[in-house]
Amino acid sequence: MVMTLKNLNLIRNGKRVLHNISGELEGGKIIALLGPNGAGKSTLIKSLARLLECEGDIQLHGKVLADFNAEELAQNLAYLPQQSQLEFPLEVDEVLSLATLPFSLTRLQQRQQVKRVISDWNIGSLAQKDFRQLSGGEQQRCQIARTYLQLSNMTLEGQGRGIWLLDEPASSLDLEHQQQLQRICRKAANEGHCGVIV
What we know:
Strand content: 15-25%
Order of helices and strands: EEEHEEHEHHHEHE
Mean pLDDT: 92
Structural class: alpha/beta
Largest sheet: 4 strands, antiparallel
Radius of gyration: 17 Å
């Protein structure tokens, strides 16, 4: 099991959002969270990413999630929020390189990996642009590529199977890029990772 959830509960603003959620997330699987607005899908994803504290027990690779430091968490879990709020003046290739920081890579290896993901995601025309100036769909493609690069480093470094948490990743994508996302999700599952998609 990559991640286990036991009796997760969360009350926000007086409303119970999560109620006794339990389950196991296996490597090699893509899990879709479906439900109406307000059902708690994004809240659950944020709890799994340790961005919201909830009651209950979450374990990642048999270790309590709360016991991971930030670097260890980034070596095992990649999270894409619904909307990316990036306030720093970074070019796209710099945003992508953030995915390599938790791993023991040389500068050359970092640059090579960024080049590879730029090619894989066909975002070469965006690489030197200020991330903040991109359209919503372009930003989303770059952030998906960043989290996938983080996930692929887990495989390369032998970290084992990782968790890829994607909160409405296709909402800003056109059909072509939605299909590309589906292919990449299948590839990640074939590499042994677990994807959780809202």
